[in-house]
TrEMBL record:
Keywords, in A-Z order: Hydrolase
Domain named Peptidase M20 dimerisation: residues: 185-280
EC number assigned by the record: 3.-.-.-
Organism the protein comes from: bioreactor metagenome
CDD domains on file: M20_Acy1
Gene3D superfamilies in the cross-refs: 3.30.70.360, Zn peptidases
Protein name: Putative hydrolase YxeP
Sample GO molecular function, one term: hydrolase activity
InterPro entries given in the database record: Amidohydrolase, Bact_exopeptidase_dim_dom, Peptidase_M20, Peptidase_M20_dimer
Enzyme category, top tier: hydrolase
Length: 382
């Protein structure tokens, strides 16, 4: 393993530059054309065969030189977010309203580095390794589509692993993981409330959709406080409200969108009915009608306990016990690695990147998020 660490250190500058290249040219889900082309050129240079799925997914295959019929998959996501970057770093996004604000540029560069290291020792590997370069983690449905189109077959994948960079709550250079649910299941939410418009000076002649919407936003929070076990987790956030024309006009329509986050299947399954009951009740009381859409969304990532134990011991062997932790709490952030971890025993690791001294301590999906060089020779994150 020390040889691997030394080789990683020797390759550091190469993969820092790859990460910066991806950061300069962020691409959204299923449009990661330049990113996937760079990945394929890298795999070609290593002699690693690969297949393509859809427009941009890439699946590499390393065949070990020792006897063994088991296969492990390693996944990295490649897509960006529709955010205008404000970091001011020299390798800042060159494309307006696109930014790698969730670490996917780092994930991709790391897996390219892993491909390099594993290709150099493939004669020592008993079995096979699949490299999943995944599009559209932020949506729409990159992992699920890859699996539906055979990414976990030929050869069949027996276990999967992934990591996610975090700049909050986990100091730089630390690794954390936990068995069981480790991320929130996510569902979208759209509510339309229809009233009857009119003059702001004559509200009694109208049906105010904005007032009804305000009551709905407040009432929805009673699901978490009064309908769900306090020891379970749920978040219902209304993120946008659109309605009205001007200050002296009573709105005839309001559209709200939001997100639902849960951990337990029973809580997730109950939420749509709870939301509709509350919206229906408020709208009846306020003389409005309503429409609700709650897409299926994605479930929680559920880490396999045996895979967590294996990953924990492996990380301790490489990084030392002082740098590896078992998390006590899951994150309510969504992650479509859940589909890989449902198809085979899996584990998602959290890679700490919090570094307040370098202003690397804002949360993901923030226009000022940035990364600093990691003190781990196994990864390259400038």
């Amino acid at each position: 393993m020390n040889t691997l660490l030394q080789r990683a250190k020797e390759q550091e500058k190469t993969f820092i530059e790859y990460r910066r290249q991806f950061h300069r040219h962020p691409e959204p889900g299923w449009e990661e054309f330049e990113t996937s082309a760079t990945v394929m050129r890298h795999l070609d240079s290593l002699g690693i065969p690969y297949t393509r799925i859809g427009t941009t997914a890439v699946v590499g295959l390393i065949e070990g030189g020792k006897p063994g019929d088991r296969c492990i998959g390693i996944r990295a996501d490649m897509d960006c977010l529709p955010i205008m970057e404000q970091t001011g770093v020299e390798y800042q996004s060159q494309i307006p309203n696109r930014m790698h604000a969730c670490g996917h540029d780092g994930h991709t560069a790391i897996l390219m580095g892993v491909a390099t290291l594993l290709s150099e020792i493939k004669d020592q590997i008993p079995g096979k390794v699949k490299l999943f370069f995944q599009p559209a983690e932020e949506g729409p449905g990159g992992a699920k589509i890859m699996i539906e189109q055979g990414a976990m077959e030929n050869p069949k994948v027996d276990a999967v692993i992934a990591l996610h960079i975090g700049t909050v709550d986990l100091p730089i250079g630390k690794i954390a993981m936990m068995p069981g649910p480790s991320s929130g299941g996510t569902q979208g939410l759209k509510i339309v409330i229809n009233g009857r418009g009119g003059h702001g000076a004559h509200p009694h002649k109208s049906v105010d959709a904005i007032m009804a919407a305000a009551h709905v936003v407040t009432a929805l929070q009673s699901i978490a406080s009064r309908e769900v076990d306090p020891l379970d987790s749920i978040v219902i956030t209304i993120g946008t409200i659109q309605g009205g024309y001007r200050g002296n006009v009573i709105a005839d329509r309001v559209e709200m969108t939001g997100t639902i986050r849960t951990l337990e299947p029973n809580v997730r399954n109950a939420v749509p009915g709870q939301i509709e009951r509350i919206v229906a009740g408020v709208c009846e009381a306020m003389r409005c009608t309503y429409e609700i859409e709650i897409p299926e969304g994605i479930p929680s990532v559920v880490n396999d306990p045996a895979m967590v134990a294996l990953a924990f011991d492996s990380c301790v062997n490489v990084l030392g016990k002082e740098n590896v932790f078992i998390k006590k709490r899951p994150s309510m952030g969504g992650e479509d690695f859940c589909y890989f971890a449902s198809a085979a025993p899996g584990v998602m690791l959290a890679l700490g990147a919090e570094n307040a001294a370098k202003n690397c301590n804002v949360p993901g999906h923030h226009p000022n998020i940035t990364l600093t060089k990691m003190p781990l020779p196994l990864v390259w994150l400038p």
